[in-house]
């Protein structure tokens, strides 16, 4: 489930690109100064492993469905959070470019939802403290529980990210509450499944390669620096919040329509008023329909705004203010023009191909 | 495990398309990346109720596919596979947003249907543009271009590694699954305990492989940087390509081409 370009506005897409880009650049610097020499090929191969592992499913007991691992938590454990973020970002990039899963503009948002939420939030702020609390070698059950919890929290944050991005973009009409109620429980289930899968794998790995676990959890180069980590993260989040706020206000000023629309939504009209305006809507729509047939040519000639219709009655004027761009003339022209455009586009594409084929002969 | 094999074939085929010499593959990857970025940002910058004005933008992926000799059917199939999320989220629009914003043959059309159509068109355009970029350029070239555009080297190296070994490890995963299926007689998803050890063994092998790769690389003088033999050279036609693309996007963003065309046709009809 990745965010798609189609649901994003440019302002939100670019903001999350900046946020994820900053996190990536910071991680890249950390990784460059990492003294584990074999890290570069290890990161590449583990990215490929996550990629392959997502194709193998296990059955969820009691249901007919199946699930797979998420990867972010596992990579953080094996590589450290910074290298893990880069690996996750690369996996998402390949998914976006080859499998059309997510999009190029949405990639920033996806890296944030999947990578930053798990590798830079859930892992350092939840998994590691809990593991430190559980002692040097926690029982399998305890390690499993910690893994599941961290996976669930990471995915909940990611789902919250998807909801936030969709809401800020305003392309989908889903109200915040409905969308939250849809996304969070679904991702609670997915998080549990992913957590259980990751736990199964991590427990196996601890048994097979305890050395690896000892080094990555207790003696990794990041471990001694654990104390200052949250403060830096909080500072980062603060910068991010400022950035979002700044861009959001810019977005608001660029598109007053969208803001107006959302304000009328959030101020919450009483029930009566909405039904009244709905009635109003259909009435003035009928009126418009009649008007369209009366002076059809006028509508065509005077394309923008169609002032003759708009000033016909006060009711129409109100209707105009409530809904932007109700213009029947534009609609008809749009439909006919649309068909013509698509025909032209396909024709041009065909021509380009034909010309090439002939040239090859 | 037909799904793994299909995915692998898809992965391979898209990249293989780029190895053929076409008019489009001669363009500098940076120009194509920048053009695609401009395209996507322009497409998503439209208001949520815009449908008709988006249609002219289909020319970009279609023309790129034409110049790059990429089958539109293959792109369409990938679009269909990837569509569920955008469709599911968009599908709520007609239901929630019932204000009429458009008249079609005298019937009011709810805003939700219009914005739903807009979401679907945006989805097709943006995803097709990304697919065409890879199919016409090749992933390796895209990475070289990204590096030259200033992405951190750690990241582009990681992308190249991932691309190189994803096929290897996915193939290994497919063979392990197949072996298990043949021995156990059960197909599809695994019981959790088997899943853990199967993936665990795959992971152990992957880590050993990384160690071998590292040793081989060090033996050949690896110093933390992957060097590419290809040198990118920005030529006049790359600037021209980028200018034409961006100019076209800007023009189609400012002028509602579809509407103008419709008016023209209506004028002739009446």
- Taking pLDDT < 50 over at least 5 consecutive residues as the criterion, the unreliable ranges of chain A are 215-230, 244-277, 286-326
Question: How would you state the average pLDDT of chain A, rounded?
Answer: 70
Q: For the terminal residues of chain B, how far apart are their CA atoms? A: 60 Å
> How much helix is in the residues of chain A?
over 70%
What is the β-strand count of chain B?
Answer: 2
Question: What's the assembly state of these chains?
Answer: heterodimer
Structural class of chain B: mainly alpha
Strand proportion of chain A, as a percent range, falls in under 5%
Beta fraction of the residues of chain B? Answer: under 5%
> How many domains would you count in the coordinates of chain B?
2
Give the CA-CA distance, first to last residue of chain A. 45 Å
What's the CATH topology label of the largest domain in chain A? Answer: Arp2/3 complex 21 kDa subunit ARPC3
Overall number of structural domains of chain A = 2
User: Which sequence of strands runs across the widest sheet of chain A?
Assistant: 1-2
Largest interface: A-B, 116 and 129 residues
Mean pLDDT over the residues of chain B: 84
Q: How many strands, which pairing sense, and closed or not: the largest β-sheet of chain B?
A: 2 strands, antiparallel
